Amino acid sequence: MNHPQHPPRHTPATPRDLVGIGIGPFNLSLAALAHPLTGLSTAFYEQRPRFHWHPGLLIDGARVQVPFLADLVSLADPTSHWSFLNYLKAHDRLYPFYFAERLHIQRAEYDAYCRWVCGNLPALRFGHQVDTVRWNPEHHLFEVDFTQLDTDGETEALGRTYTRHVVLGVGTQPHVPAPLRPLLDTSGAPAVHAADYLHHRDALLTAGHITVIGSGQSGAEIFLDLLRHRPAGRERLHWIGRTEAFAPMEYSKLGLEHFTPDYTRYFHALPEPVRDRLVPAQWQLHKAVDADTLAAIHDELYRRSLHGGWPDTVLTPGIRVRTARRPSPHKIELHLEHTQQGTSTRLTTDAVVLATGHRRRPLTPLLAGLDPHLRRDSRGRPRVDERHRLVLDPAITATGCHVHVQNAELHTHGVGTPDLGLAAWRSATILNSVTGKDTYPLPARTAFTTFGLEQRRPQIPHTHRMKTLSPLADGI
Predict the structure, then answer these.
(1) Cβ atoms 406, 27 nearer than 8 A
(2) Rg (CA), the chain
(3) Between the CA atoms of 309, 314, 318 and 324, what dihedral angle is there, to the nearest 10 degrees?
(4) Positions of the chain with pLDDT lower than 50, given as ranges
(5) d(CA 236, CA 347)
(6) What is the pTM of this model?
(7) How far apart are CA 78 and CA 97, in angstroms?
(8) Residue 74: phi, psi to the nearest 5?
(9) Which stretch of DSSP H or E encloses residue 124?
(10) I need a surface site. Which of 168, 183, 263, 331 has the fewest CB within 10 A?
(11) In 282-414, which residue ranges form alpha helices assigned H by DSSP?
């Protein structure tokens, strides 16, 4: 059988200005802000056949943890056609939203809004899997090889495009800690990651006893949803997590200033060892539980105690799962350790939901062709400059070509990296860098807090201008 090959290398007549890899909210923000820029040739590739934002976690009533102004574009361009308010107008829902008085919208509505934007941007190419990115020293361009997939996910055609800039927005993937992985490697009693929760909820609800592992927002939302669907007095639910408490997320107004460009610049300028100490210490800024969700859990538990007795639930923080196994086809056994008491026990359950979070998808396979050109820090991680660009060989950056990253720079830019509230600002920063001018003027100051004794303000050292190009059809 002959395997298809990517097209042979050729002289690119009119390369693209920007190619985005991955279409999640962050690269969708970039595509939306890039859309009205005439003369900017862009393409965005996504392996999935369509946009869908965490479909397994679109629990009825679950809300996005940032205000609706943190949409794809508004904090960089409030007049953009792709704002959430314009989405409401297009669907004749402005007045209902006005009277609802909701600053935080439902997660399902945010997903619908993003899909509306996707349906109107011609630069998006779903069903395209990017295979590799290379530097072409002869033409001073990046080569991007991709595979076009059919509706069944099978190879339909191969192609290559050339570009001056690449933006990596490949997102995250479900994380399962090593002690829990044996549960996914064998069949039997349900053991599902929170990312797939809604797809398995009916099966989970038939289980006699259910354990939710993970004390973050997803674990809280899933525990609440299961609780609401279990009969009073026969809930048979466990909720355990590693944190020392089921802690509320920091949501004070000054605390939220950690999610501003001011703090991002401050964090980036800190020494690497200081940054590495700060990120895990700031977990309550972005990995704890929304206070309203915690209140809803308590309200539901209290309601079930009104006629005497306690709900059949156990909520225990400070727990580490040491091992997990299946003693029989329909049972799961967890070996638990309480980190403060130094005690341990075994919990037998009929189903487990792993609300153990997500981790950044590894960039190594995608960037293998660029590995010799990457500059890394003391721990082997890619270095990322203030404008969200991978630090590459000077021979490459001297040409004005760059690889930008979205949500892959937690180690260099801090807790705001995965936050939707900084999406539009980061996209605008990238577009200003690509175009070589202040296409989207950005604020000089964004926080009342002064982070550090030396105040750092945005630097705009643009030294090159974008060439006006006509769009180029991909060679497939």
Answers:
(1) yes
(2) 24
(3) 160
(4) 1-2, 461-476
(5) 12
(6) 0.92
(7) 18
(8) -60, -35
(9) strand 124-126
(10) 331
(11) 283-286, 291-303, 394-397, 410-413
